Amino acid sequence: MDPAASRLDFAATFEKTPAPGVFKDFELRLDFDPERPADGRLEVRIGIASADMANTDINQAIAGPEWFDAARHPQAEFRATEIRRAQGNGYLALGTLRLKGVQQPVQVPFTWNGAADTASMQGEFIVKRLPFGIGTGEWAATEVIGPDVTIKFRVRLRKAS
Description:
This protein is mainly beta and 161 residues long. 5% of the residues lie in helices and 53% in strands. A 10-stranded antiparallel β-sheet has the order 3-4-6-7-8-9-10-1-2-5, with helices on one face. A hairpin with a 4-residue loop joins strand 6 (75-85) and strand 7. The mean pLDDT is 94.
């Protein structure tokens, strides 16, 4: 993965208005042949403390126990157990997301653009925050902070040597 050319963004909603952020520390490992997607493997690790919503106070709050609880759960992880071909250059990675100590099944659609030595993948999907315990106590109500979080990613990959 080329970190300088890759992004992992998220957007919650605050009073029905998008509240964007980015994970600045993540690593993706992919073993993938677009002609044989079923043989592929995908793993993503995310440094939770790297979540940045462009506001110091908000960043401190989301790292706390009511939100990500970064001290007790410093890393999130997605592992695909299956990759399927979709339409055109689209694929679907089915797997498990582990976040804040909770594991839930997640489907991650992505598009693939490959070349000889480099490739890129990008996609977007929605995660429900409450099953993971993201936003507890007064934040569990969904009137102020919506239940859905949109995850967008764009990753540039380099061929392993």
